[in-house]
Amino acid sequence: MSGVQDKVVIVTGAGGGLGREYALTVAREGAKVVVNDLGGARDGSGAGSAMADAVVKEIVDAGGEAVASYDSVATADGAAALVKTAVDTFGTVHGVVNNAGILRDGSFAKMDDAAWDAVLQVHLYGGYHVTRAAWPYFREQNFGRVVMATSTSGLFGNFGQANYGAAKLGLVGLVNTLAIEGARNKILANAVAPLAATRMTEDIAPAEFLEKLPPTFVSPVVGYLLTEESTETGSVFVVGGGQVQRVAQFQNEGVRFAEPPSVGLVAERWSEITDLSNVTQGKNPLG
Ligand code: NAI
Fold first, then answer.
1. Which of 21, 26, 254, 275 has the highest count of CB atoms within 10 angstroms of its CB?
2. What is the secondary structure of 202-218 as a DSSP string?
3. Are 277 and 213 part of one and the same domain?
4. Locate the Ketoreductase domain: which residues (predicted)?
């Protein structure tokens, strides 16, 4: 097993919570880690170097290799600088974990453009910018690993998280196409929806529930998806509290109309159209 030994892995938002655990895990497994974190608050305000520096110190003190980056993933320039740090320090980049995230919760009725844009910029644009900056290296070396942090709020919906859910499911859409386009160059892309006790969830769920969700249950799955041996691509996993589940889209047989039907005819067949008792994994009919 060569695992992630000597692989250069960027973990965004690695100054705390899940990202810190991902960074510590892959460093322990022999990866050279770029610990990226803007160092701000949960809502994305502020910035600082202390968070990323502390995780780099933890890794180096334990005998591992790591470098800090304080760039924001939310801009193309920040992502370019982040990837440059990896290349300047360790020669290339083999894997990216797009984990950086913020929250600006509020019901859709009260959602303003600033809350919408800020969340889309860090999660969806962040995943896009960083992966795009790393992509030429992946193609050149015929090896690349992308893990996106998605969320059950995107996969299934959650009150007050329209912006966050849209961004998180956008990342799954991105993974679907990266898996197809990356295949020729042995670039694998997957998404993980974690469930873990972090500053992001500390006031969302009861303490006794969060107690069972240390980030250490999530990081080994992310670590595995970064390994040389993994062949998994285009998949989504929900991981937390010891449970590791795959989530996928399915489609039913549906109904076939020989001619354009009337609205009434659609209504008549509605129960067959929506019946999920006989489904197969969904495919792009145009792909
Ligand atoms: P966290 O708040 O501890 O970690 C997010 C990190 O991203 C922070 O350290 C923050 O400073 C950093 N960050 C924010 N904006 C940034 C930017 N523009 N550039 C670089 N870094 C930035 O929260 P947690 O829970 O560890 O979240 C990690 C990821 O997992 C997030 O993408 C989150 O949406 C996702 N997630 C977490 C869940 C959980 O149960 N904790 C559930 C579902 C998804």
1. 26
2. TTTS-HHHHTT--GGGT
3. no
4. 7-203
